[in-house]
Request: fold
Amino acid sequence: MPLPVPLPDDFSPRLIRGDAFGQLLSTCWAAGGAPGAAVDAAERDDGFLFQLDASLYFQKPDEWCPTDRWACERAVGDVLDVGCGAGRHALVLQEAGHRVLGVDPSPGAVSVARQRGVDVKQLAVPLPAHRLGVFDTVAMLGGNLALLGSDETAKQVLESLTSVTHEGSRIVGTGMDPHLADMGTDGAAYLEDNRRGGRLPGQFQMRVRHGAAASEWFEYLMASEQELVGVLRGTPWRLSEISPYEESRYGVVLVRS
Reply:
């Protein structure tokens, strides 16, 4: 995983609501996906900033974290890539012979992914009730298991994924255990406050910032293996396989009954 990078000089505290993630990817793509072209700044609702070089979203498989490679290799058949971003996973899956449809709520991300050769629709999870097709695999890579959001919204997200899959379909994804991750100076207190409030410890409100643009706040969930199993309870999805941990990161295969 890339190390955090400093915020650029033009990073603005005066924010305008907009497609910050799409602007971030467009800036980096215009520079050929080169390191240093743009900074991904994800802001937690207590003000803590997670910062990564945006070239992460354009990496080749040999640059991915091992858990992403592990999960991607377990895709079968037709694939729905949820939160496809710039399409780094979708492109590799296509090259491996899979039919892939990407979905992402960011119009800028959709534009970049299309320019790179990905079939993509501008949609967020939970997916709306219209037909996308039936898929053998749902990919939630690059840490996108966090798009389950919370214990409550996860049920809605998983129900919507059930509607575009069949019995025996799988979710291949990667997540992060908040109890093992670097959550910042006040991270332990944040996790404990969540626990006392009846929430999962790694349940966050997040938004993406780029320059003066900020996305809408959204739910983001980091969960341990045990917490993930709890989230799946009462849904048609069960944990079938989990990768070795890479520090706080792990990959999973969830199978639909």
The chain has one domain: 16-256. Residues 16-256 form a domain with the Rossmann fold fold (CATH 3.40.50.150). The CA atoms of residues 30 and 252 lie 33 Å apart.
